[in-house]
Amino acid sequence: MKEVYVFDAVRTPRGKGKKRGVLAHVHPVDLAAVPLKALPQRNNLDPSAVEDVILGCVSQVGEQGACIARNAVLAAKWPENVPGYVLNRFCGSGLQAIQNATGMIGSGQMDLVVAGGVESMSRVKMGADIEGLDFAVGNEVLKNDYALVPQGISADLIATKYNISREEVDRYAEQSQQFADVAIKEGRFKNSIVAVKGPNGEDIVLDEHPRIESDYAFLSGLGAIFKTIGEKELDAIALRRYPELKAIQHVHTLGNASGVVDGSGIVLLGSEEAAKQHNLKPRARIVATAVAGTEPTIMLTGPVPASQKALAKAGLKADDIDLWEINEAFSAVVIFAMRELGIPREKVNVNGGAIALGHPLGGTGAILLGTIVDELERRKARYGLVTLCIGGGMGVATIVERIG
């Protein structure tokens, strides 16, 4: 296998996923095109040299339908010879796109690929792709053989099974807001963020979702949101798989779960030959990648086995990793992963995570990889690991090593 290098990572700011969010006026195709437009200028690169554009997108309907990757290439006014395709591994889609590109470059089939993802959650609602169907999408095998529930119920199930308290999830959420606030004030995201034009022509350069006022006192007063959506019926379905628990303790709220936002991010990856040919400076190399399947009711424990597989492939231990980005789908997901993998809090999501900054489903994996490369450079640290939990019971993980 050839070495695969990260040359650049570019993202938009994240806007609240609602009608009045700062990016709600931006068509999803244009949102995906923003970092594509910036990439050639940042790297003095002829975009016709890019052999493929791979984008993750979860709700591939409406304005995000057809092939948003190819449409974004066209909207960015890139040369027509550049192809693109879109994939869906739910919340892991952006990182999966990077792993697909890694495979193509590492195998020698391609030398220069752009990979990332996009999601406009204000314009294409989460779940729009299965609108009118149940969690089994009308399939009798899934309905009869698996206890499928919403992810919020799964997160509360993790908290119940592994004794994660309401105070713990709120304290963690408070830290996410605090860390993000420091990162923004210190300009730690400036290297990767490119401006999006606002409705009045203004440059939008800051993530909209963080709320530093969300301290523990505020967070602890919020209602447990997943207790209000068909609790008895959905809990009963989940407890078919875990009858020993008797009941589910609902601890997750709008304050300790990931924010619904719009955003996109891409990563430029390539081989040593591409670096030489196009005068690109490697910032990091892809050390190992992995995906894992897990039990589909509890669903969100996938970062643990995926990270373990990636570490084993790399010949590393959890202690060898300097920085971790564990997607903050819900507080309990990160707390569980830290416990199981033995990771100290000071290594995890040091610039805040999706609780504060938001989780644009298809784009988050690519955004997190850019964040960890930036932070490895800032700290002059060596190894970083990015991992996300995934609906249906999966996990994805990628290890990078800083160069220089």
UniProtKB/TrEMBL annotation:
<feature type="active site" description="Proton acceptor">
    <location>
        <position position="389"/>
    </location>
</feature>
<feature type="active site" description="Acyl-thioester intermediate">
    <location>
        <position position="91"/>
    </location>
</feature>
<comment type="similarity">
    <text>Belongs to the thiolase-like superfamily. Thiolase family.</text>
</comment>
<dbReference type="InterPro" id="IPR020615">
    <property type="entry name" value="Thiolase_acyl_enz_int_AS"/>
</dbReference>
<dbReference type="InterPro" id="IPR020617">
    <property type="entry name" value="Thiolase_C"/>
</dbReference>
<dbReference type="Pfam" id="PF00108">
    <property type="entry name" value="Thiolase_N"/>
</dbReference>
<dbReference type="Pfam" id="PF02803">
    <property type="entry name" value="Thiolase_C"/>
</dbReference>
<dbReference type="InterPro" id="IPR020616">
    <property type="entry name" value="Thiolase_N"/>
</dbReference>
<feature type="domain" description="Thiolase C-terminal">
    <location>
        <begin position="280"/>
        <end position="402"/>
    </location>
</feature>
<dbReference type="GO" id="GO:0003985">
    <property type="term" value="F:acetyl-CoA C-acetyltransferase activity"/>
</dbReference>
<dbReference type="InterPro" id="IPR002155">
    <property type="entry name" value="Thiolase"/>
</dbReference>
<feature type="active site" description="Proton acceptor">
    <location>
        <position position="359"/>
    </location>
</feature>
<keyword id="KW-0012">Acyltransferase</keyword>
<dbReference type="InterPro" id="IPR020610">
    <property type="entry name" value="Thiolase_AS"/>
</dbReference>
<dbReference type="InterPro" id="IPR016039">
    <property type="entry name" value="Thiolase-like"/>
</dbReference>
<protein>
    <submittedName>
        <fullName>Acetyl-CoA C-acetyltransferase</fullName>
        <ecNumber>2.3.1.9</ecNumber>
    </submittedName>
</protein>
<keyword id="KW-0808">Transferase</keyword>
<dbReference type="InterPro" id="IPR020613">
    <property type="entry name" value="Thiolase_CS"/>
</dbReference>
<feature type="domain" description="Thiolase N-terminal">
    <location>
        <begin position="4"/>
        <end position="230"/>
    </location>
</feature>
